[in-house]
Amino acid sequence: MASPTALWGSAVFLIYFRLLLAYGPRYFSNQRNLKHVSAQIYYDYTTHYFYQKIDHFGFAEDATFKQRYLVSDKYWSETGGVVLFYTGNEGDITWFCNNTGFMWDVAEELKALLVFAEHRYYGESLPFGDHSFSDPKHLNYLTSEQALADFAVLIRHLHETIPGARNSPFIAIGGSYGGMLAAWFRMKYPHMVVGAFASSAPIWQFEDLVPCGIFYKIVTDDFHQSGKDCSESIRNSWKAIDRVSSSEEGLQWISTAFHLCSPLKNSDDVGAFKSWLSETWVNLAMVNYPYEAFFLQPLPAWPIQVVCKFLTNSNLPDRELLNRIFQAANVYYNYTGQAQCLNISQTATGSLGDTGWYYQACTEMVMPMCSDGVNDMFEPQKWDFPTFSADCFKMWGVKPRQTWITSVYGGKNISAHSNIIFSNGDMDPWSGGGVRKKISESLIAINIPEGAHHLDLRSKNVNDPASVLKARSLEIQYINKWIQEFRQRS
Questions:
Q1: Do 138 and 131 form a contact (C-beta atoms < 8 A)?
Q2: Which residues contact 325 (CB under 8 A, 6 or more apart)?
Q3: What average pLDDT score do residues 423-439 get?
Q4: Which of 24, 187, 419, 448 is the residue whose CA sits 20 to 30 A from 399?
Q5: Can you give the pLDDT at residue 9?
Q6: Eight-state DSSP code of residue 479
Q7: Span 17-38, mean pLDDT?
C-alpha cells in the first residue's frame, strides 16, 4: 500500500500517494564495506490471461480486457487439495507473488494450487491499453468493486478449466490493500471462498472509524522505542531545516550535506524535501523487519534500530543535527553502499503502480491522515478534506466520496460475516486502521508485537521472532479448520 506522508494542500498532494517504480544506483554514501542484501527470492509459476468484462455492473460497455494471473501447481492435488487465491494489490502481480512467501511455504502441507490474480489497471492488466489512464472516462472502471468482481469471475473460470478445482476449497489471501480486498471478497462473495486471510489490512482507516493521527503516532512510537532521543531528533529536525534553508547559502548547504541529486532552490523544494524525509521515516516503520530484506529498499535487520544509532541527541546545533539526520536517512537509501546521490522524488523500489493508486485515493479510497507534532514526530497538519477534494478534481476531474467505502463494506459493522483472519503487526503504522480485536468466533484478530507491515506473509526466516511464528501457526490452524468444514459439507 502507498506510504501516505501527507495530503494536506496541493504543495504536498502527490506525496500522499507516491508509489515509486524506478530503482537504480543513484544514491550516495560515505559509509564503506557494507555488505549487499541477499538476493530477492523468485518462485516458479506459469503466466496466464483471462478476458474480463471492463464493466461488470452495467451492460452498455461490453468490451473486455486481458487480466493476468500466475499459477503454481507444484504441490497441487486434484483430490484433497486447496486453492490459495491471492487478491492482487496496486501493482505488478509478479512483485507481490515473489514477496508472499507464506503461500509458497505452506503449499506442500496444504497440497495447494497457488493463484495470484492481478488487479485491473496494474501491471499488464490494462482495460484500455495505453489509454487506460488518459482521462476519467477510461479510469471510470478502476474501483475495488470491479476488481472483486474480476476475482469472482476468474474463480469461476478456474472451476471450469482446472481439474479438481470445482470441488476444492478456495481461500482468499492478501496483504495491505490486497488484504483489504481479501477480507472484502469474503464479505461480498462468501460462496466463492471458504475464508480469507487479510494481513495488515486497514479496512477501518476510513471516515472517522479511527483517529486520523493514529498512523503517525505508531510510526513515532517505533522510533521512540528504538533509541533514546531518536523520535525527538526527528521532531526537532523540521524547525532546523526551516532555519537553515532560510538563506540561499543554507539551501546550498542542505543540498550538499544530503548529497541531493538536484539542489534545493526555493521554499517549494524545501517542502518536497521535508515530505521526502517524512516518507522515509514512514517507510522504515513499514519495513522494520528482523532480518535483512529488500522490499521497499535493501535494508539491514531492524533498520530503525540502526537509524536511531545516529539520532541520540536531539539538542544539537541545527547543522550538526541535520548531518545526523542525513546519516540516518542514508541507512534507508544506501545500505548497499552503491549510491551516487539522493533523489528526493524516490523513496521505494518495486513494481507498484503510482498512477492507478493516485486515482483510487481520489475516488473511493479516502483515508484521513493527520499529525499534531505532539503525539507524533511530524509537523502538525490537519486533515483537510475540502482541499483534498479540490486537488483531486484538479488532477483527475473527479471528486472523492469519503463515505463510500464504509457504505459498501460496512465499516465496523461486519459481525454478520465469517471466516476472516485479520493479522496486524504492532509496529506497522497501518495497524491503526486494522481489526485488532476478535469480533466473533470466526472473525479472528491476530496481533504480532514484533511485526511490521505484513511480516507474517513473508517467507519464513531463521530470524523470525517467536510472535510471528506463533501467528503463522494460528493462521494455518484456522485455514485447516475452514478446509475441514468444507470437506464435511461436501
A1: yes
A2: 233, 234, 237, 277, 310, 311
A3: 97
A4: 187
A5: 32
A6: H
A7: 31
pLDDT surpasses 60 at 40 = no
Confidence grade of residue 213 (pLDDT, cut at 50, 70, 90): very high
Residue count of the chain, please give it: 490
d(C-alpha 72, C-alpha 88), whole Å: 15
Give the whole-angstrom CA distance, residue 200 versus residue 318.
37
Calpha distance 46→35 (Å, rounded)? 33
Residue 360: the pLDDT is 96
Instruction: Report the CATH number of the 10-33+212-333 domain.
Output: 1.20.120.980
Per domain, the residue ranges of the chain are 10-33+212-333, 47-207+405-489
For 391, residues 6+ apart whose C-beta sits below 8 A from its C-beta are 9, 10, 13
Q: Which CATH superfamily is domain 47-207+405-489 in?
A: Alpha/Beta hydrolase fold, catalytic domain (3.40.50.1820)
Cα–Cα distances in angstroms (integers) from residue 345 to residues 18, 119, 269, 274, 281, in the given order: 9, 25, 11, 11, 15
Report d(CA 56, CA 35) in Å as an integer.
50
285 Cα distance to chain centroid: 12
What does residue 415 show for φ and ψ, rounded to 5 degrees? -65, -15
For residue range 411-424, what is the model confidence (pLDDT) as tens digits?
999 999 999 999 99
Would you state the cell numbers that stand for residue 134, as one nine-digit string? Answer: 488518459
The stretch 395-409 carries a mean pLDDT of: 96
257 confidence band (pLDDT: 50, 70, 90): very high
Q: How far apart are the first and last CA of the chain?
A: 37
Distance CA 54, CA 190 (A): 23
Helix or strand holding residue 432 (H, E): none
Whole-number Å distance between alpha carbons of 172 and 84: 6
Report residue 483 CA to chain centroid gap: 28
Active site residues: 176, 428, 453
d(CA 247, CA 7): 27
pLDDT score for 362: 96
Please tell me what DSSP assigns to residue 374. S
Q: Is 111 left (phi over 0), alpha (psi -120 to 50) or beta?
A: left
